Amino acid sequence: MAVTQLPPSPEIRKLPLYKYVDGVRWLPPFSALDRYAVIASFDSDSDTPSLEVHSVSPSKALALASAPAPLPSRVSSLKSVSFAQRPVVAASTRAGSLHVMAVNPMDLSIEPAAAAAEGLHAGGASCVDLADGGGDCVSVGEDGRVNLVSLGEGRLRKARVFDANGLVSYTAAKWASPSEFATGGYGFSLHWWDRRTPGGPVSQFKCDRIQEKASGIVHSIDIHPSRKHTCLAGGSSGTIFAWDLRRQQQPIILSGVGMGEGVTSLVSESEIWEIQYDRSIKPSNVGSRMLPVMICSEDGILAVVEEGKEPVELLAEPCAINSFDFDPQKPSEVICSLEWESIAILSRP
């Protein structure tokens, strides 16, 4: 695996939690001085899943800031935004429910913003994404259902956009605009949806170069606010690629096992669990088609990948790195969850 080491190395602080971390997200800032993260945890001793708010000190120490909010099942996906001047967290569960919680800035308690949406999926929900502004969620599952859930007047309004009845499975989702979102699934498939056009996706990604790997799964997707026509995807066998709606049959492939010519390096040979555009780094090449991205993987790699360059390794662990997030106030600082019941916080120079 050709991965170069970042000079100078980031400052890394590892913090044990003594329970499994299913997801972690920075909360939108309350003030310029205080920083908080929301953690979806699972205590295997008591078989208890919950959401917790932790304060992060300047020395990168974690401290539980409020009582944990219990959930009926383990979290499968976690997102946070600011809505109505409060941090709002959306969590989907392995039981198929969706929970939208608000964090009280006064005492940091986690309170339901509305009654939970139950029965959205036949089985677990794979992914939820919360639109900027916090009012709308898209929820997808391996059952082939695509749901829109809107928050208003203390309740969740549910609408089923599509139901493939299990013939298609969805594993990732991301808003592109107030009306458009993308989904990813098995066979490295990507679908583009427009809520103004009901009945199904308005565009589908089909590429022989990737579709021949029928067992591949898209685990995570991201869409940059300045490049809403491009969907970034990470999945099985270290695969990282981008789908440009303007050139739908010409994907930009950054990494992947067996992807052939044009792939300059391989950052990982295992599952890419999460992928996000790295907003703290400017492209080295002015004419680059892709902005730099960050990934975390099953084989314990947290790295920055840039088109035409060798990946830069930030963290290498003996266990999976399941999720990560950028500090909205300082994107050079990254928080990530490690499979061995701990959190890592990286501060890049």
Annotated CATH homologous superfamily of the domain at 16-167: YVTN repeat-like/Quinoprotein amine dehydrogenase
Q: Give the low-confidence spans.
A: none
The total count of helices amounts to: 1
Largest sheet: 5 strands, mixed
| Structural class label | mainly beta
What is the tally of beta strands? 30
Biggest β-sheet: strands ordered side by side in the sheet: 1-27-26-25-24
Rg measurement, Å: 19 Å
The CATH architecture of the domain at 16-167: 7 Propeller
Short description:
Helices cover 1% and strands 49% of the residues. It is mainly beta.
Question: What does this protein structure show overall?
Answer:
The chain is mainly beta. The protein has one helix and 30 strands. The strands form seven sheets. A five-stranded mixed beta sheet has the order 1-27-26-25-24, with no helix packed on it. Strands 3, 4, 5, 6 and 7 form a five-stranded antiparallel beta sheet that branches. A four-stranded antiparallel beta sheet has the order 2-30-29-28, with no helix packed on it. The two termini are 25 Å apart.
